[in-house]
Amino acid sequence: MKNIKTNSILTAVVLTGIAGFSFAAFAHGGAKGIVKERMDLMSNIGKAQKSLAAIFSGKVKYDAQAVRDAASIIESHAGSRIPKLFPEEPVKDPSEALPAIWQNWAEFKHISDELKSYASALKANAGNDRMATNGQKKTSMGSGAMMGQKKTTMMGGGSQGMGAGGSAKSIKEQVEMLTKLPPMASFQKVAQTCSACHTKFRKKKK
Predict the structure, then answer these.
(1) Torsion angles phi and psi, residue 202, rounded to 5
(2) How far apart (Å, rounded) are the C-alpha atoms in residues 175 and 131?
(3) Which of 1, 18, 36, 200 has the fewest CB atoms lying closer than 10 Å?
């Protein structure tokens, strides 16, 4: 029963992570300039995310270096790079960016920083034992021991997230904790943060 429950939770997390990037080719045609640049960047993150999803879902044999490589791509694309591709000036090219980005600019930037931090944690703990560590009991992939808290918000930071008064310090503390846990914990954070960003700041596919 535990294995079934764990696999069900894992599948849900993986699908959540992939869903945010199902738009990779959508509305890409006709885009140019900075809009195309950010679409290309998001597409690269999406490819890395999908490769991680395949690894953590068991479709591909676990390879710590492959995890580090994918995490490095996400890390290098997130942080300050994403906001720079969303200037305040309106663009005429096809774009899936919602006005919510500029209306919630601080939150948007914070999420991008979170993504970079969680990807960094995944790169750091890719070689960790994939079972529970530091005295934690073996548990399902969505438990407090794996995630750092029992529930997480759509912003990927749970009670520490931007929507709940999160800070750079709280994210740093989370990352330090994640580096000591199995890699799945960091992957979940990466997947949730990506999905959260697209849920709030990207136009829905019709």
Answers:
(1) -120, 140
(2) 18
(3) 1
Which pLDDT score, from 0 to 100, does residue 172 have?
A: 86
- pTM of structure: 0.73
Burial class (CB in 10 A: 0-12, 13-18, 19+), 53: buried
pLDDT at 170: 85
Rounded CA-CA distance 127/9 in Å is 22
| Domains and their CATH numbers in the chain | 2-201 (1.20.120.10)
Strand partners, 97: 202
**Per-residue tokens: 38:** 């950010």
| The token pair that represents 179 in the structure block | 């580096």
Q: Which two tokens stand for residue 95?
A: 């774009």
